[in-house]
Design brief:
With 426 residues, the protein is mostly beta strands. The protein is built from 2 helices and 32 strands.
């Protein structure tokens, strides 16, 4: 397989076709890098051994199957000290992830490479927003944003959220995927500015990773509320029903009555629930853990309006506070199909990828080179008695240069002064 020029090391990762029920286009996958990653719990800590610091986190690249076409990458979290990282990668192209055959990608990493700012960014960096296709109207990883009173939207819509106050809710590092927000069931909430998330489109897909931390919630406690209760009731809500026991639905008002309240899904207290709700023209379908479940007819469109989106509380009515931890929230103005939802569940729980071993194709590392006899020969720095080799009537000099030298070869030498490259000249 071709090698992406300028990079010293790579690992192959393979998307398991057994989890892909239909070809997927422009799909975001999670790369969890750790000592126990993917389907087979592979040790990928070699990435941290090479990069050695959080500051080097952008010295990476991810490519498609050909080994050279780069993908956009969002770094959700990079923790070199604990050797864990969470990256979102857009596998770009129509049907880029195939059904019935495994799809290979490559992760490149090299501490001597410049930051890959053209393709890799942190959450809220403009380049990282390319990971999310145009149907994503909001994506929240639920980490703290600029400070402990804000969260970021990862899409180019920039529908960022503001907490009620600092640490209300408080961030936790014990999320399903890196960090999450822990709502106290009292007064914690997060608001966006008023935004029309759907425009003229009537389809919607809402994806949530949520862990209830109480077996009983406030009556009609809200995970998300697009201000459904303020007249003229032109928003929608992800809300607990009147049972108070973590049974939720997607509901909206059609001008006469409420749609969707009879289509409910029971979530498990104290566990991570991957909960997705999809509405098209005539049907609402719920998915739990990637599989379809409750569904039913709906006979109206969701009215479109610019409303506040609130996490953890109702916008207009008090005493509907949520108690639990919200990790991931995604809102799309389209119908995500069953294959997409299943693959999303598998990647979010890090059960979609198989990892290969570290490769150094095209780069050979020598730990010193010395030939001793009547005289001593060794590779030396530029201009200091270079090693000379005669071949075909021509004498070549071999000397050590910095790896950034424009004439450096791909051969690396580990020296006491760090990693060097060989340069040949006549």
């Amino acid at each position: 397989m071709a090698w992406l020029s300028g990079w010293g090391k790579r690992v192959k990762l393979t998307i398991d076709s057994g989890d892909i029920d239909a070809a997927l286009s422009d799909f975001p996958i999670l790369l969890y890098i750790s000592a126990s990653s993917g389907i087979s719990s592979e040790d990928i800590s070699c990435v941290f051994d090479e990069l050695t610091s959080d500051e080097n986190r952008k010295k990476i690249a991810v490519t498609l199957t050909d080994g050279t076409t780069e993908c956009y990458v969002e770094i959700e979290k990079w923790d070199d000290g604990n050797e864990k990282a969470w990256l979102w990668v857009k596998v770009a192209g129509v049907g880029a992830i195939a059904s019935g055959v495994d799809t290979d990608l490559y992760l490149y990493y090299d501490s001597t490479h410049a930051d890959n700012d053209a393709y890799v960014g942190d959450t809220n960096d403009e380049v990282a927003e390319n990971v999310w296709d145009s149907n994503f109207k909001a994506v929240y990883h639920m980490a703290d944003g600029a400070d402990n009173a804000h969260i970021y939207d990862s899409t180019d819509q920039d529908n960022d959220g503001e907490k009620k106050g600092a640490n209300e809710p408080i961030v936790t590092t014990a999320g399903e995927i890196a960090n999450a927000q822990d709502f106290d069931g009292d007064d914690d909430e997060i608001d966006t500015a008023s935004v029309d998330l759907l425009g003229a489109v009537n389809d919607i897909t809402v994806e949530v990773i949520f862990k209830p931390t109480s077996a009983t919630q406030d009556r009609y406690a809200d995970i998300l509320d697009h201000d459904h209760s303020t007249a003229p009731n032109n928003g929608w809500v992800i809300q607990q029903d009147s049972s108070n026991h973590n049974k939720f639905y997607l509901a909206f008002h059609d001008g006469v009555g409420w749609q969707g309240t009879g289509i409910t899904t029971q979530l498990t207290n104290g566990a991570w629930n991957h909960f997705t709700m999809v509405k098209n023209d005539t049907t609402i379908t719920h998915y739990l853990a990637g599989s379809s479940g409750s569904n039913g007819a709906c006979s109206a469109d969701i009215a479109t309006a610019a409303n506040v989106l609130r996490f953890g509380q109702c916008v207009a009515i008090v005493n509907r506070a949520l108690e639990g931890i919200i990790d991931e929230v995604r809102i799309s103005d389209c119908v995500r199909n069953g294959a997409w939802i299943k693959a999303t569940y598998e990647t979010e729980r890090d059960d979609l990828l198989d990892w290969g071993s570290e490769e150094t194709e095209g780069v050979v590392y020598y730990h010193g080179l010395k030939v001793q006899g009547a005289s001593e020969l060794a590779l030396c720095d530029v201009g200091t008695n270079p090693l000379r080799v005669r071949k075909g009537g021509t004498t070549y000099g071999l000397e050590l240069v910095d790896t950034s030298d424009p004439n450096a070869s791909t051969v690396r030498i580990k020296t006491g002064a760090g990693t060097k490259a060989i340069r040949k000249y006549t």
